[in-house]
Amino acid sequence: RTRNAHQPEFIQSVEEVAETLIPYISQHPIFKDQSILERMVEPERMISFRVAWVDDKGVVQVNRGYRVQMNSALGPYKGGLRFHPSVNASILKFLAFEQVFKNSLTTLPMGGGKGGSDFDPKGKSDGEVMRFCYAFMTELERHIGPNTDVPAGDVGVGAREIGYLFGMYKKIRNEFTGVLTGKGLSWGGSLIRPEATGYGTVYFVQNMLAVKDMELLGKKVVISGAGNVAQYAVEKVLDLGGIVLTLSDSQGFIYDKDGIDREKLAYVMKLKNVERGRISDYVTKYPSAEYFADARPWSIPCDIALPCATQNELDGHDAKLLIENGCMCVAEGANMPSTPDAIHQFLAAKILYAPGKASNAGGVAISGLEMSQNSLRYSWTREKVDNRLKVIMKEIHNSCIEYGGCETGYCDYVKGANIAGFVKVADAMLAQGVV
Ligand code: NDP
């Protein structure tokens, strides 16, 4: 705590994991004797650097760039880059810590990392985003590589940014390698990567419901966010016959009682990905929907809630409302969207609750498959990758049950994800000695 003072998000993510891991570790003294958890909470390396770039007015702007190389016991560091004004060491360390467990759960050979900058892409021209990405990569390039550290996208870093980052890496290093994932299809990207986190979250929900002999057909689903994860979560819920009632962004949410259908989803994708507009525009296009400014969608009665926007976007009060209104399943598409109070309420009410490190692992899993395809210099079909995604999500679900237990019909996915993710990394660390 003293060493990580002023890092509340990081402390929150470690405490959440420690709550279930400490009892497990006390039954397995080798992990305690070798200080495995103490080592896991300290990044192997953390880089912070100046990013200076010139805006459209010719003014020099300065941002701070980071890369947290958290744990490489299982493979090269792997995890996204986030460009958002809120980015700081605490947020990136929490994301990197979660990433270690998540990557372990996929069973693919990936360590954990995370990075980014306090740069805000909102309102910037294409040229400004490109110049920022170039400046960011001129420093980051010396710390990454296809066998060292393979960054990807996250909030504020989509296909456009990955393109600019990859372009500069290739120019400096004079090599075409799979150093980033989330690349365009014609230059090394994988089919299904854009869809993978949203689809994977919904596949995970399918597995959770199956334990209770239920399915998504006809279920009312409340989703937050309107970005990459939220959009493809909507698409997969629709594929499986569910009804999506809400979407949100950082300024408010929309409630469409008639359901967000495919045509409306196509509109949201254009609005958010091409026009970079606000979700409030939805009600201008579809006046039967309602817009709630400065609010989150958890007050809308639903069967299933999928928080897909950002950390700590669902607090204890929201959790209480969801439960009171009959919500029976919460699966996190975002990283750590539920506060500790919200998690305790879900666990106490014994509803189905999946933490992001399990339910949103589909994105990094397909990034892992993108790395494999790059090494093979080969591209797998959409069907093959989607099938692998379904299998991986099922296996993660089953690992959670194996380690978390599912007695008397109640499955503890929090305990399961934390222990299953931990054991593999811990065993590898033990085998590699004190390094
Ligand atoms: P995007 O940038 O595509 O979308 C983020 C969405 O969340 C936007 O709608 C954004 O609204 C909203 N949002 C951001 N900050 C806030 C806030 N403070 N309050 C309310 N809403 C907010 O990001 P992604 O969809 O890629 O990521 C969403 C979450 O999923 C993040 O937690 C990310 O770490 C996690 N994740 C993403 C993966 C991926 O493959 N993309 C993989 C695994 C996890 P606005 O437009 O107003 O900013």
From TrEMBL:
One of its GO terms (cellular component) is cytosol. NAD(+) binds at residues 197, 228. GO terms for molecular function: glutamate dehydrogenase (NADP+) activity; nucleotide binding. It comes from the Bacteria. The keyword NAD applies. SMART domains: ELFV_dehydrog (SM00839). Substrate binds at residues 78, 99, 102, 153, 367. PROSITE patterns: GLFV_DEHYDROGENASE. GO terms for biological process: glutamate biosynthetic process. The record marks 154 as: Important for catalysis. The active site is at residue 114. Keywords: NAD, Nucleotide-binding, Oxidoreductase. Residues 190-433 form the Glutamate/phenylalanine/leucine/valine/L-tryptophan dehydrogenase C-terminal domain. Belongs to the Glu/Leu/Phe/Val dehydrogenases family. Homohexamer. This is Glutamate dehydrogenase. It comes from Algoriphagus ratkowskyi. The lineage of its organism: Bacteria, Pseudomonadati, Bacteroidota, Cytophagia, Cytophagales.
